[in-house]
Amino acid sequence: MEQSSTSALLQGTVLDLASDVVSALRSGDHVRAGSTLTGGGAGEGVARAAVRVLGADALLPSVLLRVPPDPGQLAVFKDAVAAHPPRDDAAPAVVWSHWAMARTLRRVEHPLTGPDAAEPAAEPGAAWLDEAGWQTLTHQLAVLAPLALPGEECAVTRAARRRPVDVARGFVRAVRRRDWQQAAGAGRWLTLLDGVPDTLGLAAGLDFVRLMGGSDPRVALQLEAARLMPAAVLL
Amino acid sequence: MPSKDKVLEEVIHTENIDIDAVLDPAEPDGVFRDSRECAALALQAGGTQLLLSPPTPRPKKG
């Protein structure tokens, strides 16, 4: 019972945080992106866990819109990276989401030199994606949607670039399954990939996902990222 | 509840959360709208052949 009430609290905080990020992406206001974290709405531990769950996208407005993050928000982000490292036996998606957060942190803290100038963490492997069927590939890429950024160069983005048709098939499958979160995440990846079939109708598909699932802030976040992606240049 | 107790309770609760499970969620069951899928499910359920039958032919008017 305690576990479920805590999970509900965490889930609610993740949704609030995602709403903040969506507002910031739409308005360019970085302060809004951190209002859940700095406004005292959630407890410190829950806020930190929520940032870890939302992952690198918690700082997406800073990365895509090139606005400096709120200091309080940045402090919680740092705490989340430090407090929730992946376990030794963690699944690849967990390891990669942590790696993405650490990379984003370096990117935001060293905007002039770029993340490669201070790259302490070795890049995890992505062989599991190459071996995955198109359904699993799309599911995992949607989970790792925070890595879908213009100009991002890592093993996951390279794996996605090798299989645009598979991701397109996964997008259609996700829409048919009414899994709007997966569809939005896959759609975000597809805006970055070359070789996506024109017959997919990605723009119309993303409009449909927005219409059907856009009320979920996590879906809206991916759709906003997809909207900004073509014009964005990585920090 | 005193605020210190509340903070302590929150810390305990947060440590109980399995973050990894949230970070690597299993794919949720989809809600398909594919007639072939529906047909397969109906066959598995049994006794629903009537639903899978084509519509009863109606006499043409005129």
Structure overview:
The complex is a heterodimer of chains A (235) and B (62). Chain A contains 14 helices and no strands. Chain A is mainly α and 235 residues long. Chain A has two domains: 1-122; 125-229, no CATH class. The longest helix of chain A is centred in the first third of the chain and has 26 residues, at 2-27. Chain A starts with a helix and ends in a 7-residue tail after the last helix. The relative contact order of chain A is 0.12. The mean pLDDT of chain A is 88. By secondary structure, chain B is mainly α. Chain B contains four helices and no strands. Chain B has helices at residues 3-16, 19-23, 35-45, 49-52. Chain B is rod-shaped. Mean pLDDT of chain B is 63; it is low at 48-52. Classes of the chains: A mainly alpha (235), B mainly alpha (62).
Strand and helix layout:
The complex is a heterodimer of chains A (235) and B (62).
Chain A: H1 2-27, H2 30-33, H3 35-38, H4 44-54, H5 60-65, H6 71-83, H7 92-109, H8 127-130, H9 134-143, H10 155-162, H11 164-176, H12 180-190, H13 202-213, H14 217-228
Helix pairs in contact in A: 1-4, 1-14, 4-6, 6-7, 9-11, 9-12, 11-12, 12-13, 12-14
Chain B: H1 3-16, H2 19-23, H3 35-45, H4 49-52
